[in-house]
Structure formats: C-alpha cells, structure tokens
Amino acid sequence: MVAMAISQSLSFNPFKVSVRRGVAVAYVPPPPPPSRVRYRFASRRRLNSEAASASASHFHIYRFDRFVRRCWIADTEVVNHVGAEEEVQEDILAVEIECPVPIVHLNSDILQTDSLTLLTEGTYIDCLLTTLPVLSEEEQNALAATPAHPDGLYALYACCLAGNLVEQLWSFAWPSAIALLHPSLLPVAVMGFFTKLAIIIGGPVVGKLMDHSPRVPAYMCLNSVQAAAQLLSAAMIIRAYTVLPTSASSVLLRPWFIVLVLAGAIERLSGVALGVAMERDWVVLLAGINRPIALAQANAVLNRIDLLCEIAGTSLFGILLSKYEPVTCLKFAAGSIFWSLPVMIILSWLTNRVSTGVLDRAKCSQSCCKMSNEAPLLDDDSIADVGFEAIKLGWKEYMQQPALPASLAYVLLCFNVVLGPGSLMTAFLTQRGLNPSIIGGFSGLCAFMGVAATFLSANLVRRFGILKAGAVGLTLQASLLTMAVAVYWSGFLSQKSPLFLFLCLIVLSRLGHMSYDVVGAQILQTGIPSSKANLIGTTEISVASLAECVMLGVAIIANDVSHFGVLATLSLLSVVGAAWMFCLWLLNPTDEQRSLFSFDPLT
Q1: What is the pLDDT of residues 246-264, one digit of tens each?
Q2: Is the pTM of this model over 0.70?
Q3: CA torsion sign, 343 to 346 to 348 to 354?
Q4: Alpha-carbon span 137 to 100, nearest angstrom
Q5: Buried b / exposed e along 23-47 (16+ C-beta atoms within 10 A)
Q6: Roughly how many angstroms between the first and final C-alpha of the chain, as a whole number?
Q7: Strand, helix or coil at 603?
Q8: How far is CA 210 from CA 253, 277, 378, in A?
Q9: Backbone angles phi, psi at 105, to 5 degrees
Q10: 431-465 burial, b for 16+ CB within 10 Å, e for fewer?
C-alpha cells in the first residue's frame, strides 16, 4: 500500500488505482503466473510509450516502472530489459493478440519526485525476505506427523479390520480342523508345503500384474478370489468329516484333499498379494511418502489391527471349537467369509473416494511405463514365458535392492515354522491333548505381544535408531527361543508345567520378533522405490515362502510328533542366523546403504 500526493483525478485499471484530489491509496493485486514473455512485453510497451519524447516525463515513468517491478518481484523472474531489439519484437508479435496489455499514459505533473519515497533501494525486497513463512522445527515435525489423506487412512484401517479378522479366523480354523481328523503332522505339512510353493512360483507374477493394474479394481478382484478359495476349502474339509476316517498317507490321494490343497494355494497367494498392496503401496500413498512420522504411525496401526484380529479370530474359533462340533464351527467361518466380502469391497472403494482418487494415480515411473509400452505384459508370447520373465525380473530387482540384508534376515526368520503360532504348532498342541481354547489363547497371547511390540519398537527406534532397534529385537527373540528349546530338550515336556513354560517363552519371544517386523517394514519402505514395491514385495514373500517350504519339506519327512524337537532346533538356528546377519550388516554397510540409512555402530 503506497500513499501518493497528487493534484488531479486518475483512474488506472492495470493496478486498480482510484485517485481523487488529495491523498489516494494504490492497491497492487497478486500478479498472474510468471511469464518471461508477458513481463518483457509489458516492459517494452512502457519503455516505448509516447512519454519517452520528454526527458522529464521519461524520468518519472522510469521511477514508476521500478515501482511496478518491485511489486511483482515475489512472483516473477528477474529479466534483463536491455535485450536484443529483434528478440523483444518477436515476443511482442507472438503474444500481442492473445495477451493484450493496456497502455497507461502518465503526465509529469501527476507523479512527484517524492511520490515513491516509501520504496527506497532494497526496502521492498528486504520486507519480502523478512516476511517469508519459514516453518519452525516443531511445525516441521507436526507436518511430518500429519497424513496426506487422513480420511483415506481411516477407511483403509476399517477395510483391513474386516479383511484381517476373517483371514486370521480361517488361518486358525483349517489346521485345527485337519489336526482333529488325523493324529499326524503330515496333512498340515503337505498343505503348507504346496501353499508356499505356489507363492514361490506365483508371487512375482501376481506382483507384476498388480504393478500394471489399477489398484482398486485389482484389490476387489483378489478379495473375491480369496473369499471363493476360502469357501471352497471349508466345503472340502466339511466333506472330509462326512467320509470314513482313513490313514494319513491315504488322505493325500483323496479328491477332497487335492482340491483343498489347490484352493489353499490360491487363497494364500491372493492373501499375500493383498497384504503387499496394502502395506507397501496403499499406506505409503495415503500417509505420504515424504511424511515419515505419519507413515511410521500408519504402519504401527496396521500391525496392531492385524494382531488384534489374530487375537480375536483365534480366540473366537478356539472357544467355538471347544463347545461345538468342528463342522458347525466351519460353517460359522464360511458364513463370516461370505458376508465380509461386500463389506471389504465397499470399504476399498470408499478409501479411494475419500482420498480424492489418490489410488488412481499411475504406479510406474516414466522409465517403467516406457518399458511396459515397449514390451506389453500380455502379448503373443505364452503365459509360461511371461511368468518366467516376471519371476526372473522379480528376483533380479530383489537381489539389487539396497535393503537386501534386512530382507534376508526376515527370510531367515521364516525358517522358524514351529516355534511360533502356526499350523504346525497348532497341530502339535492339538495332538498333545490341550484344550482348543488353550491353544487359541496361546495364539492370542502371541498376537498380544505383537501389539505390545508396536509400542516397544517406537521406544527402541527413539533410543537406538531404526537399525539398532532391529538388532535388539532379533537378539531378544534368539535369546528367549534358546531358553524355550532348552526346556523342550530337558525331557519334562510331558508334564503341564514345563509345557506351559515352553509356551510362555515362545510368547515372550514374539515381542522381539514383532519389533523387528515393524522396524523391518519401514526399512524396506525406505529403500524400495514405489514403482517396484509390489514386484519386490511379492518376490520377498516368495523367498520367505521358499524358506518355509524347505522346513515344511523336513516336516513332511519327520511327520511324527516325536520329531518335533528336531524341527524346533532347526527353527532356533535360523533365528540365531538372522540376528548374526543383521548385526554383521550394521558393522559393514555399503556406501549406498550409508546414504539411505544412518549407521553409527559405536553409539
């Protein structure tokens, strides 16, 4: 705002100046988007006005021109007005028709010598520089902790709650029902083996398909496929209870068991793809990849939802199984799966709707999309060739990722198939004669330790840093599992008290395991680009499934319950190896890893 003393009225449109006799106030509006051509053209027209014929008038116009330039200096680039005559003339001809600029003629008696004394040399620019908004450290932290799409995150949490509750209930239902059919680990181990084998082969293929498919339609399709596979599996197990019981080896050749294995493989492959899409892609977009605190909080909430669903699902089915027949419980699980499907589809659509369509953005970078255009995903080549190329690309990208040691430590943890709440542990405890409600309580306590780990991991990261927090979690898990295996080999596991101590040590070890799981997820989110998140994520799950597949193959060979100690010892060695590898990585990082993560092993 500038006050000028003048002697006559003047109406000035470009700057909206309304001047009357006496004192007038000039308001300079915000300028349009910066343009070199517009600015140079306007300056040219002012400098070539008729007032240039009089030297006194030229002096005042020059002063007013300096005033205009300083009023616009915040939104324009500094341009040298003493350019070549031909270049300026070309600019005039290019924009004269589309960008007319009004010409203002000023008389020398309007502007006095002291009219612009408020804008002395550097005053306006200094004022601009001192009033630029600069965020304080507290404001920057608050911005980093604010999700980019909070409403979308809440809808995502609700969608995960509905999906994970049914998935965790079914993950506990099918091994319990099969273990009650046959007193052997063989059926459960065989089904788990082929499930992991399907993930190894199909994981990279599904990941590549998801990287080249719209997010929301792909999520809805996979949800439908997973629900159909779960319903078919429930029907096959119910069918098994209606036929005469046979030996464990003959069960493997039954038609219902073959269909059950195929349906279980499809169900797990769909579930893995859905989990990778949620944890590696959707949550990053909704929380904001440049908002680390909000992303860490969203990861913690997703982990808590998953673990709370595990507590609720396993406990609920365990209580039902202790009171009702297995067929009745399986029908309840099938009904829950059927009615949860439309809820998840609606919530996934709502997630994209309330986040202003952020999930509709293209996933691939320009280079990735260019490669996709040059080599279409589905062309005249056979499906086998496309799948082989996807697997090869997935393994190549996986081995080249900067966070490979952290991922390999996670893979080693997956060799632990018995010292945790899984299908083999459920079958082992069922054949030990424990009440199903106690077995469900054991799985629920393991999940509760995971919930506590989401809070513990935040304190560990704050105190030790993200990488050292992972090392602490792995060391804690290895120590507690060593004690658990020692209790098992003590020979007193046939008694209830040593058995409960064995289970309690496994429950406590989940605190370290889930702490590393939370920390490792953020390490991989930091080191993997978003355009390759699904491909690398599903490939990592495939590698982890390969580790589990090897251990399940050992379980198939040693399927008797008396060989459980051998499986427990092998699982312990894998956890110790994971802790050793991760700590070795902290001591010998590469230059690329140093640029992505903070390494300071001495503090």
Answers
A1: 665 677 888 888 999 999 9
A2: no
A3: negative
A4: 46
A5: ebebebeebeeeeeebbbbbbbebe
A6: 56
A7: coil
A8: 34, 8, 13
A9: -105, 125
A10: beebebbebbbbbbbbbbbbbebbebbbebbeebb
